[in-house]
Amino acid sequence: MNKEEAIKKLKVRVTPIGNGTAIDHIQPGVGLTIVEVLGLDVKEAAAIALNTESKKMKEKRKDLILMENRFLTEEELNKVRLLARGATVNTIKNYKIEKKERLDLPEKVEGILQCINPVCITNHENIKTKFSIKKNPVKAKCFYCETSMDEQEIKKYIKK
Amino acid sequence: MHISFFLMDSKNSLKKTDFSLTDIISIYDFRKEDILFVLKKAAEIEKMTPTEKSLLLKNKIVASMFFEPSTRTRLSFETAANSLGAKIVGFSEAGVTSAKKGESFSDTIKTISNYADILVIRHPLSGTARRAAEVSNKPVLNGGDGPNQHPTQTLLDLYTIKKYVGRLEDLKIGFVGDLKYGRTVHSLATALTHFNATQYYISPESLKMPKHISDEVKEKCKVFETEELEKFIPEVDVLYMTRIQKERFPDQLEYEKVKDAYVLTNASLKNAKKTMKVMHPLPRVNEIAVEVDETEHAIYFQQTAAGIPVREALLEILSKVKK
């Protein structure tokens, strides 16, 4: 069996999902963070492929997550948008892709990021956090204390 | 005649085109027009007689909520409110409030909003002023939210420059000393981007202006960063001095190296422009020699005095704001 055949065989093993969500073209290395942030358990995660080959990706590698009977709320989608810019989220119903979204950064997020600033009021009182997001370079600015977080910090401070 | 004009004026609410804000939280919220509107109002109020002034906030109640002690800011706000004829309620430390009983900041603000027409707030945590503005139906004036913003300081700095240098446009200004932690410096540098200022950041390597601020300023203004003070003294219209704080240094040896790096004396000012002005947010330690106080350059005591008309102007403006 050559490599191509082996890949084909491996792909067969990923059972298609009837109802649920597929997050595809995730930058390699980010897949497990998404699993953690979404709090997926064994029953929901139909398949997780890490660092698998992909012709489309710049890195020629990707992560992939298939979730059975699990649909993402807007809040969860925003978490994935922050983590996996450029990935695609497919909502599947009756084995058909009902909705497909190529993820871009949201302009604003509420309640999903913790502020990095230890003296920010949101870390001392039960207040829904609010951040505005800027691209190039990626920055999240706290609505309350005006502290900015860079891309690495954003990833670290997404609420689990 | 003059008095009735002001009375009539105070009944009118503000036009959004003149002043766009409903709360004074952060210097980042200000358009250039808003800054100029405050400075113009401060100049008008400064020319008024005590009687004229005392009618501006008659029958208004100002809550002076100081969750941490701050003598100068609190007294100047309360002086301003008093001279405009307002009544003041409030506290000067958190220990006497229900925060001690475990009440949240947001609940305290909602409660006091029922009593007062304007809330002046100082708090050790950042973001508290913005939160207060969000939950209160009354205008909020930020008197300092932790290490974040202190917009009235910036406005009084601008007022001082306008008054004693004569203009705000096209200034050459040197910021000296602790540019890393000094929030007054960060806010003023940002505010001056509206006025095409050339900015000189003069500090030891360890206390440089944070990159995110200098990057932002550089988008609109010329910026020079250096460790040398004397070389740039002849260039500038304003020298904004700051205190280098011992507690900021993890390494005391490092502090010893820089503590006397920027001491302004009459000798070091000999090549300055005659009209050059020296500012300082005070308190000072040794960064400006006492002998400089007697020169034409020193305006740091006038600068603290400017806190009154500027805070009076802000209170008067907020008394007309509809939220």
How many helices of chain A does DSSP assign? 4
Task: Count all strands of chain B and give the number.
Answer: 9
CATH hierarchy class name of the largest domain in chain A: Alpha Beta
- Strand order in space, largest sheet of chain B: 7-6-5-8-9
DSSP strand tally of chain A: 9
Q: Sketch the major β-sheet of chain B.
A: 5 strands, parallel
Mean pLDDT across residues of chain A = 90
Overall geometry of chain A: elongated
Order of helices and strands of chain B: HHHEHEHEHEHEHEHEEHEHH
Determine the CATH topology of the largest domain in chain B. Answer: Rossmann fold
Low-confidence parts of chain A? none
Class by SSE composition of chain B: alpha/beta
**CATH homologous superfamily of the largest domain in chain B - what is it?**
Aspartate/ornithine carbamoyltransferase
- Radius of gyration of chain B, taken over Cα atoms and rounded to an integer in Å: 20 Å
Name the helix and strand elements of chain A from N-terminus to C-terminus, one letter apiece: HEHEEHEEEEEEH
Strand content of chain B: 5-15%
Number of helices of chain B: 12
Describe, in plain words, how this protein is organized in 3D.
The complex is a heterodimer of chains A (160) and B (323). Chain A has helices at residues 3-12, 31-38, 74-83, 151-156; strands at 20-26, 45-53, 61-68, 88-93, 96-102, 108-110, 130-134, 139-142, 148-150. Chain A is of the alpha+beta class. Chain A folds into two domains: 3-102, 2-Layer Sandwich (Alpha-Beta Plaits); 108-156, SH3 type barrels (Roll), CATH 2.30.30.20. In chain A, a hairpin with a 2-residue loop joins β4 and β5. The termini of chain A are far apart. The relative contact order of chain A is 0.15. The mean pLDDT of chain A is 90. With 323 residues, chain B is of the alpha/beta class. Chain B has helices spanning 2-11, 32-47, 50-53, 71-83, 105-113, 128-135, 151-164, 183-191, 211-218, 252-258, 300-305, 307-318, and strands at 61-66, 87-91, 118-123, 140-145, 172-176, 198-202, 223-226, 238-241, 277-279. In chain B, the strands form two sheets. In chain B, strands 7-6-5-8-9 form a five-stranded parallel beta sheet, covered by helices on one side. In chain B, strands 2-1-3-4 form a four-stranded parallel beta sheet. In chain B, α4 (71-83) packs across α12, α5 crosses α6 and α7 packs across α8. Chain B is globular and about 55 Å long. Chain A binds chain B through residues 115, 117, 119-122, 124-127, 142-148, and chain B through 26, 28, 104-106, 123-128, 130-131, 145-149, 212.
